[in-house]
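Comment thread on ticket #2218

A.B. wrote:
> Attaching the input chain for the structure job we discussed in standup.
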Amino acid sequence: MASSKILLITGVSSGFGRALAQEALATGHKVVGTVRSTQARGDFEALSADAAVGRVLDVTDFGAIDGVVADIEASVGPIDVLVNNAGYGHEGTMEESPLSELRRQFDVNVFGAVAMMKAVLPFMRKRRRGHILNITSMGGYITMPGIAYYCGSKFALEGISEALGKEVAPLGIAVTAVAPGSFRTDWAGRSMTRTPRSISDYDDIFDPIRKAREEKSGKQSGDPVKAAHAMLAAIAADRPPAHLLLGSDAVGLVRDKLSALTSEIGAWEAVTVSTDG
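C.D. wrote:
> Ran it. Output below, let me know if you need it in another format.
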């Protein structure tokens, strides 16, 4: 490999975070992984005696993030790559789901990711190099009934990633939003929070989607190890992409969305331009 780097990956206990950490270690990188318990820290550090470093951190503990990052910079070394992987999915129709669930979804998926970025940027800026990967979702492009809060959080992270990329590109820092489709991770299982159903009007639109998701859980087409290889390729690239879709389902559904959007823009273009003064 070209060069060994220090990666800081949030949420390395399972899913994409675990797969990426293992593949990065196998490729010769050093990985600092955040976990939420001392038990999980021990499990992670057991992956490599000298290259896997665990840090106990909940990304919603905003007051602790700067100190943890500064400590990593001082005791482990310069963070070359931040991977914002920590996140979860909320399932529930919007009307049925309390605002507290929306706040929690955004605290983890958006505010936690932004707080991590704000913590590493002063160091990356000083060095005039660095790479930030934000794990978003095809749900940051396309939507479906029953995951409005989740899609909202991923649309937000996509927008923040893209805008930040334009701010820091002149400073030698790259930002890549990685949008996976359906993968064999815990997203639709243990990691998903589900709001109880209460309004029967939504049964016909929602129940088949929930049933299909539960039946598909663990059988998704996407392989997390191959996703890790794709992310490592982006990390190694001289000119990393601003957006990287992962999975044939993601590219198909996003292309369909863009096509439908183009058609709708065309259909309403006369009304659109009629507002010019």
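A.B. wrote:
> Thanks. Noting for the ticket: Residues 38 and 56 are 7 Å apart (CA to CA).
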